[in-house]
Amino acid sequence: MGQIELKKVTKRFGETEVIPPLDLVIGEGEFVVFVGPSGCGKSTLLRLIAGLEDITSGTIEIDGQDATAVGPAKRGLAMVFQSYALYPHMTVRKNIAFPLKMAGMDAAAINAKVTAAASVLNLTDYLDRRPGQLSGGQRQRVAIGRAIVREPSAFLFDEPLSNLDAALRVNMRLEITELHQTLKTTMIYVTHDQVEAMTMADKIVVLRAGNIEQVGSPLELYRTPRNTFVAGFIGSPKMNLIDGAEAAKHGVATIGIRPEHVTVSKDGGDWQGRVTVAEHLGSDTFLHVASDLGQMTVRVGGEMNVRHGDTIWMTPDMTHLHRFGADGLRTP
Amino acid sequence: MATKASRTAARMMMAPAVIVLLGWMLVPLIMTLWFSFRNYLPLRGGDLGFAGFDNYVRFITSSAFWPAVLATLTIVLGTLIITVVLGVLLALLLDQPMWGQGIVRILVIAPFFVMPTVSGLVWKNMFLDSVNGLFAHAARAIGVTPVEWIIEAPFFSIILITSWTWLPFATLILLTAIQSLDSEQLDAAEMDGAPKIKRFWYIIVPHMSRAITVVILIQTIFLLSVFAEIFVTTAGAFGSKTLTYLIYQRVLESQNIGLGSAGGVYAIILANIVAVFLMRIVGKNLDA
Ligand SMILES: Nc1ncnc2c1ncn2[C@@H]1O[C@H](COP(=O)(O)OP(=O)(O)OP(=O)(O)O)[C@@H](O)[C@H]1O
Ligand SMILES: [Mg+2]
């Protein structure tokens, strides 16, 4: 259970087409991440799958059944919202129990399920509080609890961690990944944070203006980005994209090299540049370099002693050089 | 930050307004209190000295008192029920995206700006009148004898008029409450399997509960003093004499200022009890 297939799905709001025809298969038990810049239609796509928004044309199949005209409650999917969307006037217990109550389950069974979910999510001590009396991370867990008691065939998450601070975000990221490993249920996760996408996903779907730019595993996307957009979007810091004469030497319009695939030396190399900013993270140092080819970012070991204003030489690792044609597409 | 000098200046600037407001409130209040303890009959000898608590006792032991309490409660409760229920429904309706939303919202609020005397007369003559009223025309059109609304159903008539005046107020406050509801909560409830009716009961109504309480309390304070609507329609006849109307009769028709003032003091106490609850709720609203 939990296979979702989108066939030629489109969505328009009035005159504006937010999702042009789009095909996508989400396999059973997969952790799929939709990633893309703000406003590219990630939430819209998720809401289309959830049934909260009507699709303009195309079909959505869930477990092989046409679900296009099926209401959100009947699709067997559970959603965790960015704002958590907890019911503020109900206690945590009632929040988690709400979908079960709506399904007409008897009180004893509801109670057993809520207790079980609460213990999985470390919420047992908070069951009688209201959402307003919880921290951001606890609210997030209540929202997840409300989703898991329904035993849905797939979970939909819309930027669930964006309201949390950095440390908590890393924690919750792990908790959600663990949850996926225990439940083995399909999960679709929306984020604009490529680090979340890389660390959590089995499969990443990169979106731009409603179009799927590339679908693949995190490493596929990292190693063989299909075009310059994906190349620039996946990986941190961003890949250096160089065009002009230097790219022409390789017979293409644009070449790309990741900051970690450049060797830096103070004595000599292919490209010369001057360090504008050096960011020391301890383990690594990121150098922002003003070079003849434009602004570049390179990674060096934490030990290398480079300072603002130093002149350095950079040599790209040719085996990791990405080549893109004039249309932006990858060429071998 | 405010310095000592600027605070003093601020106080001086506010002083005139505060003094006028205080005077405006305190002078009539003290006069009412004073008269309520006097035996004051303007046409029958004028101020005849202290009466102790006589006026207070006479006001509530009079045979007109309990019927007046009942009439007041009927009008207040009837209007509250109609305005809150219809207000919620209208607010839900106005919250839907529709053509000409701005104009419709302005039209809805319009009755609130019509003076009570005017709306009372309009309703009495144009709708409720048994010869020329629209209701009478409608009744004749379907072959039914027109009803003498004001005589046969005085409470219904008065409640109709007060509800017409107060419905816009309720609608507007409730509409803003509905609009402040996070739409993701409704989406979440929909995904949780709650159909429209249940989403209304479990999500929208609890969300609006505080706004509904505020509407009830504010309206109660004003409805307790409904006067013009009664004056121009039944003039207190047919059992529609409320406490406010009773006070008016005591003072102006019976020319007994002491007795009327005692009734006025009861009314002040009653309104203040409601006001205390109102302040608490509104205060809580501001804290949250
Ligand atoms: N109800 C609506 N009516 C009209 N346009 C809409 C509506 N909802 C979304 N849009 C438009 O659709 C586009 C995609 O919106 P969407 O919310 O899916 O973006 P997103 O990728 O989730 O962005 P973010 O990362 O900021 O959440 C945006 O350009 C937005 O303006
Ligand atoms: Mg979004």
Topology:
The complex is a heterodimer of chains A (332) and B (288).
Chain A: E1 4-13, E2 16-26, E3 31-35, H1 42-50, E4 57-62, E5 65-66, E6 77-80, H2 92-102, H3 107-120, H4 136-148, E7 154-158, H5 166-183, E8 186-191, H6 194-200, E9 203-208, E10 211-216, H7 218-223, H8 228-233, E11 240-243, H9 245-248, E12 254-257, E13 262-265, E14 271-280, E15 284-291, E16 294-301, E17 311-316, E18 322-324, E19 330-331
Parallel strand pairs in A: 3-8, 3-9, 6-7, 7-8
Antiparallel strand pairs in A: 1-2, 1-4, 4-5, 9-10, 11-12, 12-18, 13-17, 14-15, 14-17, 15-16, 18-19
Helix pairs in contact in A: 2-3, 2-4
Chain B: H1 4-36, E1 38-41, E2 46-50, H2 54-61, H3 65-95, H4 101-109, H5 116-128, H6 134-141, H7 149-152, H8 154-179, H9 183-191, H10 196-223, H11 228-232, H12 243-253, H13 257-287
Antiparallel strand pairs in B: 1-2
The structure holds adenosine-5'-triphosphate and magnesium ion (MG).
Adenosine-5'-triphosphate (ATP) binds next to α1 of chain A.
Number of helices, counting only DSSP H or I runs of 4 residues or more of chain B: 13
Largest inter-chain contact set: A-B, 24 and 18 residues
Number of helices of chain A: 9
Mean pLDDT of chain A: 91
**Any idea of the CATH topology of the largest domain in chain A?**
Rossmann fold
Kindly estimate the percentage of residues of chain A that lie in beta strands according to DSSP.
25-35%
Strand order of the largest sheet of chain B: 1-2
Q: Would you count the extended β strands of chain A for me?
A: 19
Number of domains of chain B: 1
Average pLDDT for all residues of chain B: 86
Largest sheet of chain A: 6 strands, mixed
Assembly category: heterodimer
State the end-to-end CA separation of chain A.
38 Å
User: Measured on Cα atoms, how large is the radius of gyration of chain B?
Assistant: 24 Å
The tally of beta strands of chain B, per DSSP, is: 2
- Percent of residues in helices of chain B comes to over 70%
Query: How many domains of chain A, as an integer?
Result: 2
- The value of Rg of chain A in angstroms is 23 Å
**Distance between the ends of chain B:** 26 Å
Keywords (chain B): Cell membrane, Membrane, Transmembrane, Transmembrane helix, Transport
Domain ABC transmembrane type-1 (chain B): 69-278
GO cellular component, one term (chain B): plasma membrane
InterPro entries (chain B): MetI-like, MetI-like_sf
